[in-house]
Design a protein that fits this description.
With about 120 residues, the chain is α+β, with helices and mostly antiparallel strands. It has 2 helices and 7 strands; from the N terminus they run ββββββααβ. It has one domain: SOS response associated peptidase-like (hypothetical protein yedk fold, Alpha-Beta Complex).
Amino acid sequence: LPASGYYEWVVEEGVKVPHYIHADETLAFAGLYSWWRAAETDPWMLTATILTMPTVPELAAIHDRNPVPLPKDFWATWLDPQEVGTQQLVDLAVAQARPVAAGLSEYRVNPFKGNGPELIVRAT
């Protein structure tokens, strides 16, 4: 799942404050998707999830888990439809993601108001 970053909320003086966690270039989080329906007569639904991992020390003050940000040289492997989705593949993705996650930056942003670029402006 491509992204420019993600948010985590940190409790500061009893108030949840959003922090924007990002890289200087586009990120790709390891994700899974599935088409399903509850009954044969129901419409098909597409659902997706982002995999998470125990956090890296560099982000531990923000949250105890973080998404699995894949390095660019692993994107093709993760997206390969011929690749069998095993625990070994997930473990490899997490191992390769740790240096990417360690290199992410974060800063506090203002509480959300609106739906545009102001959502990632550093709080003053």
